[in-house]
Amino acid sequence: MFDFFAQELTYLKGVGPAKAAAMASEGLRTYGDLLDYFPFRYIDKNNFVHISEIKDDNSYVALKGKIINVREIGGRLFDNRRGAGGGKRLVATLKDETGEIELVWFSGIKYISTIVRPNKWYSVFGKPSLYLTDFNITHPEIEEIDAAAIAESKNSAAAQEPLQPVYSLSEKMKKSGITIRSMAAITKNLLEQARQSIPEILPANILHEYGLIMREQAYRQIHHPSSWEEMLAARNRLKFEELFLLQMLVLLAKKQKKQQKGHVFTRVGDFFNKFYYEHIPFELTSAQKRVIKEIRADTKTGLQMNRLLQGDVGSGKTMVALMAMLLACDNGYQSCLMAPTEILARQHFASITKLLGNVSSDDGTHGNVKGLPLKVALLTGSITASERRTLLPALLDGQVDILIGTHALIEDNVRFNNLGLVVIDEQHRFGVEQRSRLWEKNDIPPHVLVMTATPIPRTLGMTLYGDLELSIIDELPPNRKEIKTIHATDAQRLRVFGFMREQIAAGRQIYVVYPLIQESEKLDLKDLMDGYESISRAFPLPDYQIGVVHGKMKNENKNYEMQRFKKGETQILVATTVIEVGVDVPNATVMVIENSERFGLSALHQLRGRVGRCDKQSYCILMTKDNLSGDAQKRISTMTSTTDGFKIAEVDLQLRGPGNIQGTQQSGMLKFKIANLSQDEKIMYSARAAAMAVIKDDPLLNNRENFLLRKELNEKKHGTFWGNIS
Ligand code: ADP
Ligand code: MG
What we know:
Blueprint lengths: L16 H8 L6 H5 L5 E3 L17 E13 L15 E8 L2 E7 L3 H7 L5 E6 L1 E4 L2 E5 L2 E5 L1 H9 L8 E3 L4 H5 L4 H14 L10 H6 L5 H9 L4 H31 L11 H10 L6 H15 L5 E6 L5 H14 L3 E5 L3 H16 L8 E3 L6 E5 L5 H13 L4 E4 L13 E7 L6 H8 L7 E6 L5 H7 L4 E5 L10 E6 L3 H13 L3 E5 L7 H18 L7 E4 L5 H12 L5 E4 L12 E6 L7 H8 L10 E6 L5 H12 L3 H12 L24 H17 L9 H12 L8
Parallel strand pairs: 4-7, 10-16, 10-17, 11-14, 11-15, 13-14, 15-16, 18-23, 19-21, 19-22, 20-21, 22-23
Antiparallel strand pairs: 1-9, 2-3, 2-5, 3-4, 5-8, 6-7, 12-13
Helix pairs in contact: 8-9, 9-23, 10-12, 11-12, 21-22
The site of adenosine-5'-diphosphate (ADP) has 19 residues, from helix 12.
């Protein structure tokens, strides 16, 4: 079958060998590549402004006027205008009936001087900047226009000009002679050739239901719209298509995964009930109850559970995990809980043994729980070889019911008797590969509950974890006071210290956190130790006890310091982000974050979540230097204005783009051609609904109307992004 998309660009009118080579170096080899090379902007020639109307508001303008002179200014020495350091520049003056403006080029002078000539009319597009008292435009887009056409358009106001597409052009492409104008001509040729050869891949009823234009029309209108409406309709259709195909793939994969057989937890027994009625020191929130029900329903079906539990920091996910593990125990299965750090694993171990038995076994590695006859064990990198020698056989024998640990859990020699449930805390720290290694430990894979405190915007969650069922704890335990967040600079440090003293006098504890960023570990560690010293001076012994924890310390020292803080023996804990996730010391009510401009939003939110865990008022103090970049300012003001993790995640997504959200960096997925997860939430929902409907009607896509859709999906599946979705 003739495949228009696969044609090589060298066959296209207007693309000679040189241009083709330059385009190929940008990945543009076929008609399909070029069709998907969407303009990033359009010049609206119906919307010219007069030179006198230019405002200092940093926006692009389209101008129309006559070039009245062109001159090359090539000072060496004393020319430091715009910091060009003596380089040459080309300056042209554009004039319209209201004024004049200078156009400036610092490079490509030779070429520009051939197209910009005095006494000709041009349309000009660019961003004016103020130089001394006048505006100028550097490196504008410029195109000669027909003086007669101008006169005509002045007379007939009705004549609408199409929008002119602006494509991004690499240096190589420019050198090969491709201009914005010639690129537009090339895509025009391409679309002229395309008559009837861009097949529709979406089923007709979806086009109808969602009011989408046809595919070929969409390509035509995204490249050469005759109005903004046309452009928007095209963009909407193409975004929908992209998100729809993605959702189809995600949902089809989920269906396949669903076929996995799973252990059947038929009963709710004594462990669960006794714990629920006698051990829990508080009432579960209704969100916690709902999620436990969801887990219970999943584990009854005979299919493997794959569930993502999202809940903001402090929402009580650990309790849900524990109840799920008790369910496994009731049905005769072992379970394990995997945490991303040693500190967290120990903390889980301590709090779980305590909850199960009302005994404190903070330091022990084997908790023999009194209350419930269950054996809970801890396995981390720092468990000694001899401890392992007793633990591993016990695990294989089925004598250990609940195993808590770190990555050490997925080592090959760790074997279970009958692993029924795996809980993974703080998912984003683990790769997909680790998740699947746990699955392979048994013939029938265990149920998997993944917990994350990093709220992911729903649109991203649907894509990233599209194969997981989603549970959300959207409610904090009652009696929590909203954390007060304050921004302070170094000048206010003494006041901050004063406030810390007040809090300590009231019996509270304080974290002081320093960023630790890997590239400059030494420097960061020095920051931390300097900070520790200055705090030690401001909070001297014997009145104050201060602890310090950082990633480079030996595990046993880390644990020792954490325990001292947990027991209230130290009032201030100076730490790096090792305490970012999960650490739970309810009496700590103040979180001071040093150099907080260097943290990302999700880290700040996580850190703040370490306080506000009791009924006392908690505080988060964000220390920064004086001058902040725009993004840093936005992060800080977001933190001071909301504690809602989902809102913070949305801002994070806007600031960083989806590729940089935690957990997605490595995967290289989510490279969209046109869709934008932070802006296209609505389209995403429609696309998902449409995909669900198609799969429900025709699960194998055997219907004739779905033929091209299936073909497209098959091609995509072998393409780049699909391979990356777990
Ligand atoms: P996270 O979701 O961040 O992992 P945790 O599980 O660490 O939260 O719980 C935070 C704190 O809230 C813990 O001290 C826990 O004991 C407490 N907690 C959990 N559920 C409730 C509840 N329903 N009522 C009161 N406190 C709760
Ligand atoms: Mg937690």
